[in-house]
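Key result, reporting period 2: structure in, sequence out.
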């Protein structure tokens, strides 16, 4: 499978939030390999997200209202 179209803006080092799990907190993308996106979330730790299914929300940590 391919990345969800909304995930094409994500790159290594991007700050993201998981749209279905806001409790995970702010995450930082560690790696992207194929459709697998490894993210280190502040409240959940390191998770591998299926980028073909989940569209992560890219955020600016300086402007993030949740921070």
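The corresponding designed sequence is given below.
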């Amino acid at each position: 499978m391919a990345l969800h179209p909304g995930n094409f803006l994500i790159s290594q080092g991007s700050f993201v939030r998981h749209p279905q799990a806001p409790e995970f907190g702010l995450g930082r993308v560690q790696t992207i390999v194929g459709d697998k996106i490894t993210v280190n979330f502040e409240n959940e730790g390191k998770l591998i997200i299926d980028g073909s299914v989940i569209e992560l929300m890219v955020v600016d940590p300086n402007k993030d209202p949740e921070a």
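The first strand starts at residue 15 and ends at 17. The mean pLDDT is 91. This case is discussed further under Risks and Mitigation.
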